[in-house]
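ok so for the tutorial part 2 we go from a plain amino acid sequence to predicted structure tokens. step 1 is just haveing the sequence, like this:
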Amino acid sequence: MSTQPIHDFGLVDEQGDAFEFIINVDDGSCRLVAVLQTERGPRRTEVAAVSIKQWNAVAVAAVRELAAEMGETEREKRSPSIRPGLNRISPLVGRELGVLLISLMEDGAAERVDALLHAWRELAREERWWLYSKAAAPGQRVGVGWRKALFHALSETSDKHLKRFNLKGDDVQSRIRVGANSNSDARLRQLLEKLDLSLRVEGKSGLGTKNTLFMACELILLAQESEGCKLLLIEEPEAHLHPQKQLRVMKALQALATEDGIQIIVTTHSPNLASVIELDNLVLLWKSHAFALNKESTKLSASDYSFLQRFLDVTKANLFFARGVLIVEGDAENILLPTIATILESDFTENGVSIVNVGGVGLSRYARIFMRRNSKQTENKLLDIPVACITDMDVMPNCAPAIIGRTVKGNDWPALGNRHWRAKRDFKDEAEIAAKRSEKISKGSDESVRTFVSDEWTLEYDLSLGRKIDGKFSGGLAEDVFIAASLAEHDDAVHAEKITTGAITSEKAITIETIVESARAAFLELRKISASDPACITEEVLASLIYAKFAKDKVSKAIAAQYLAQRLLCKYKKKEITADSLRNMLPAYITEAIDYVAGGNSIPLRRQGEPDGK
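step 2 — the prediction. this is what the tokens look like for a chain of 614 residues:
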């Protein structure tokens, strides 16, 4: 020892306790030794030993940190430094250095040097002293107890998982603190009470961010377990989190569960979270029973799972939390039917009904989510959430092709294989059309899932025809649908402040009132020209002429539905229509579907193969 050059790091009492940090260039080792003065002389105990390579990786930053934290009574006039040979260090500074060196001795430290150094520098001096008292206590050794805990606390501090919960650009990191919300004096009193984990982030961190930190810590602990069940239960992780952060957290949890072999069970009421959880991992809780949505439990095919994983977004994921589900194929139904349900005193919100717009794609795929593979063996716990699927019959009256521009009146129709539309004359008789409707209903109905097919053609056409009573159509909402279509046709003009014609800009002359007045007059003219012909009855001709607004003139169905919904609601508030009078004007399939999802028991449940009962 006497051959080693001796240096003092700051002011050191030669007769008192101290530390010796020995850098041996010959054998490439660095050792921290605690020197305790006793009656028999100084007693030396090795605290930590690392290689010179390890020390060099942290030396500059560590020395700068230790020097900066030293008080006036600890430092010399010149800047302190640590050099090859024997460096004598005061007890307080030695304990701080000891925490860093002890953490560098653990397996995996070489790959986490930057994290260890960063976390160590974030600690206050008294926090390092307290950690030293734990990690350097008698009986502590590499790889176990407090030394292992210290290494994980400094090297990971949950940032490994926390970063996977953060959105891109978020600068949120964790930090180890002892009594993090206290001042220096108060922390000294708390050193023996608790070790606190907090966040280092610009501004004030919210409760949701702190919750993600807690989840990250639990995942660290579970990942280290070598025996037993690695199980993490999380109740409503969406609490206090921004919607985008919710998606990030859930995707990270699923990935970490696979990577670290941890089973994670999450309870949630969030469609946002449900939309990013793999369908195969979802379990619905209904009437005190659990219904798994994995491949062994539902009638979904492998293709269905792949499709739904791509298209089951947050708006559609509402179906997992509903007491009734109405699945529709377009924006018009999505906009209009909730208003109709409200007027019929079957308000969707009051009855817990979710409407899911699949955009004309995959209606039956969504419905099969609720079809159980082994339902006959589990009659006592049937997933009896009423699910109604509304779809078009897509069979037009014989006069419609010429009216909407598919053909020219008097000319032959293209061969059946050369067109994508069907009319009534393409079938033998009404019985064959009825059989086609029954086939569509049967194919899309099972257990609590029922398919409701339009009575004739499409939503707008059928609304114009109305309900069929004693073999005659009521005329339904023909005028209202036509007025709504006319308003949609002039929607831009209605909302424009000025109108430009050529080079002339004038004050707007078009208003909703003027369009409605003009549409009423045009509707009366349509009635006059809607005389019966051999191909169609009067009501079919009129409904086809109204539908030509959409099929031929390309008026937006969604905007027209918005105007129609507003018009019906206004009439209802003025008591121009009632629930009963509207019900008598609507096609039967619309009212039946609404009654089913809002009431549940108003129409008996069907199983595959049973008669439709319509």
